[in-house]
Amino acid sequence: METAETPHPGATEGRLNRVTILDENGHRGSDPDFDPYIENVTLEDLKGSYANMLKVRRFDDEATSLQRQGKLALWVPSKGQEAAQIGSARAIPERDYIFPSYREHALAFERGVDLKDLMRIFRGYSPGGWNPKEHNFNLYSFVLASQIPHAVGYAMGQKLDQHVNKEIAQGSEESSATVVYFGDGSSTQGEAHESMVFAASYDAPVLFFIQNNKWAISVPFSTQSRLPLAERAAGYGFEGIRVDGNDILGVQAVTAYAMEKIHRGEGPVLIEAETYRLGAHTTADDPTKYRTRDEEDEWTTKDPLVRLEKHLRLEGVDDAFFEEANAEAKEYGASIREAVLAMEPPEFDHAFENVYAEENALVEQERAWFHEYEAGFDEAETQEGGR
Question: Which of 71, 113, 287, 297 is 20 to 30 A from 171 via CA?
């Protein structure tokens, strides 16, 4: 059986080295190019990152259980990708705008989105769930790669705004940029290529952040590309970086570097965070049909949460911290379940209010028809009860 690591005939590891600072055993190494970008990251910061990763992991497991019990229409697990998301999120200025796909739960958490609101989407009760402007975090995109051209267009608008407003200097606290997240599967879509062409042509201030989790549903990465995805950036004329996506420090460092470069007006950057999807693609998927148990067991030992825990223990963090973090995560998961079970479905009438910003005669006619149609059921029940 072909696996995520099976090399394609003619494939190569490429020329770009993979950045790793925190190795699989939790030991912190050094990278002279990127060390300056994480020199201010403290042990307390890493403990906070671990606690948040644990909460999102618990949230993810709870959501999977809720779907299996028929309480959610679908669920998209992010298990195994927490370091790539939280590490990068902590390096992106709050003023910058993020376009996610549909698996960025840890990223949403870091951006301050209430994950209970996120659950309304998967419960089928909301098309969105939160106000994007409140968090500079766009709504989830369920159509593969559709968010990439949206992000580049938004970044081009940011650059134009900065050009018009001469008071905003590049690299200043007022300048803004865009980050778009997508997976290795989406990287093979035409929208990804077209977006990168536009981004390069207009020097758009955008970071393309690819979470290469080795599988595009059932298609292994070895089938999708003969080269690391970061090497594609050279073809468009901007920088590409490979990083161990399970290394939270490495991810944070390269993301901070990329955002600084983009804010200086030096054009787009592409980051490929090489990680692994420990769970199914979605709860509608059965990975045992295309992945081997040996492969899954191997990547389980590379779990980013386990790696960070090893590092914290090497740094002298005691059991009390981990016990408290686990208790808080368990409590958080229980609060998610409670919130989902307490959700009330929206009135169908609200659907008519979300078509246009202002009242529309045609929509009002359709609303009136619906009310008449709905009332017909009440009349039928009354007649049936009178027999």
Answer: 113
With both helix axes pointing from N to C terminus, report the angle between 248-263 and 82-89 in degrees, rounded to the nearest 10: 40
Report the distance separating Cα 98 and Cα 135, nearest Å: 9
**Annotation says 356 is catalytic:** no
C-alpha to C-alpha distance for 235 and 319, rounded to whole angstroms: 49
Q: Which is catalytic among the residues 28, 125, 202, 290?
A: 290
The answer to whether 207 and 269 have CB atoms below 8 angstroms apart is yes
Task: Report the share of the chain in percent with pLDDT over 70.
Answer: 93
Determine the Cα–Cα distance for residues 252 and 257; give it in Å rounded to an integer: 9
Give catalytic status of residue 290 as yes or no.
yes
Structure tokens, 88: 């990068």
Up-side HSE of residue 9: CA atoms within 13 Å toward CB? 0
Catalytic residue among 123, 232, 242, 277: 277
**Would you place residue 311 in the very low, low, confident or very high pLDDT band (cuts 50, 70, 90)?**
very high
- Scored b (16 or more CB within 10 A) or e, 277-289 reads bbbbbebebebee
Question: What is the mean predicted confidence (pLDDT) over 144-168?
Answer: 89
Q: Which residues pair with 273 in a beta bridge?
A: 211, 243
Q: Nearest Cα to 34, choosing from 264, 243, 254, 263? A: 254
When pLDDT is cut at 50, 70 and 90, the band that residue 156 belongs to is very high
d(C-alpha 276, C-alpha 319), whole Å: 28
Identify the CA nearest to 343 among candidates 132, 116, 55.
116
Active-site residue, 281 included: yes
